[in-house]
Structure formats: C-alpha cells, structure tokens
C-alpha cells in the first residue's frame, strides 16, 4: 500500500517545493481572511494522511479514495477517518456551498465543478497546484 508512518507523519507540515502549502500556512491564510475551516473534502486522498493531520486541528475531512492496487478506503476507515469511495463517473455527494476546503491530490482531472461546493470565502487547495481563493 505504500504506507510508511515515518514518512506520513511529517507530510503536509513543511514546504518540499514552491507549490506546497503546509497546513499551518493554510490556517494562517484562513485566519487572515477571517474564515474558519471546519469541513474539508480531500479528493484522491490515498491513505488519509491529510485528513489525519487536519483532524489534529479539529477539522472533519471527507476523503475520497479509489481502490487501485490497494484497499485505500479501508486504510482511511481503519485510521478513524471518514472515507468515501466514489467512482470518477459519480457526482460527489456534497451540496454546493457546504465545504470550507477542497484538497485535490490525484483525481482533479475528472471532478472539475469543485469550486461550487466551497462556501463563499472558502479555500480550494491543490497541494501541488496553485492555491486559489474563491471570490
């Protein structure tokens, strides 16, 4: 499955490239915009490491997974997180304007109408894409 706790426990906490946005920086941006992150959607979340890091900040993250070559959905559930197994053809079961943050790991090319789900003033983060603020 490619899960190494020594590697995973420090993911999303530091810059590894110019396009990275560590979690603490994300919360600083949120605070400066006077918005709160309570509910997030992690698309292509793998084993749920982003959700686990955000859980430490009291944020609920719904992690979408695809079971390619490993049971990622089960790995997310075993970590006490919220998994969502959604095929690429299915519409995401989230109403517009409900989510505070959307993080796209690997599956962004199939789910494009993501910004509609984000609450006004919410964040859309690619962690490998540019950080965008919804206006």
Give the SSE map.
Layout: H1 5-8, H2 23-32, E1 39-43, H3 49-55, E2 60-65, H4 72-78, E3 82-85, E4 99-104, E5 118-125, E6 132-133
Parallel strand pairs: 1-2, 1-4, 2-3, 4-5
Antiparallel strand pairs: 5-6
- Spell the H/E element sequence: HHEHEHEEEE
How large, in whole angstroms, is the Cα Rg? 14 Å
For the record, the count of structural domains works out to 1
Helix content: 10-25%
Oligomer: single chain
Mean pLDDT: 75
Strand order of the main beta sheet, please? Answer: 3-2-1-4-5-6
Largest sheet geometry: 6 strands, mixed
Helix- and strand-based class?
Answer: alpha/beta
Number of helices, counting only DSSP H or I runs of 4 residues or more? 4
Which homologous superfamily in CATH is the superfamily? Vaccinia Virus protein VP39
- CATH C-level category: Alpha Beta
Task: Give unreliable regions as ranges.
Answer: 110-116, 125-135
The CATH topology turns out to be Rossmann fold
Ends distance: 38 Å
Proportion of beta-strand residues: 15-25%
Specify the overall morphology.
globular
CATH-scheme architecture: 3-Layer(aba) Sandwich
Organism: Abeliophyllum distichum
Protein name: S-adenosyl-L-methionine-dependent methyltransferase superfamily protein
Keywords: Methyltransferase, Transferase
InterPro entries: Prob_Methyltransferase (IPR053223)
Report on this model:
The protein has 135 residues and is α/β, with parallel strands linked by helices. The chain has a single domain (5-9, 35-133), classed as Rossmann fold (3-Layer(aba) Sandwich). Helix content is 21%, strand content 23%. It has helices at 5-8, 23-32, 49-55, 72-78, and strands at 39-43, 60-65, 82-85, 99-104, 118-125, 132-133. This is S-adenosyl-L-methionine-dependent methyltransferase superfamily protein. Keywords: Methyltransferase, Transferase.
């Amino acid at each position: 499955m490619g899960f190494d706790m020594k590697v995973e426990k420090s993911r999303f906490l530091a810059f590894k490239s110019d396009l990275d946005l560590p979690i603490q920086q994300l919360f600083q941006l949120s605070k400066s915009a006077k918005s709160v992150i309570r509910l997030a959607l992690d698309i292509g979340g793998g084993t749920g490491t982003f959700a686990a890091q955000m859980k430490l900040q009291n944020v609920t993250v719904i992690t979408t997974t695809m079971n390619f070559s490993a049971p990622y959905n089960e790995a997310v559930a075993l970590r006490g997180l919220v998994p969502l197994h959604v095929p690429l053809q299915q519409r995401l079961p989230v109403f517009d304007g409900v989510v505070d943050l959307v993080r796209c790991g690997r599956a962004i090319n199939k789910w494009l109408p993501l910004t509609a789900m984000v609450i006004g003033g919410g964040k859309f983060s690619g962690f490998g894409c540019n950080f965008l603020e919804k206006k």
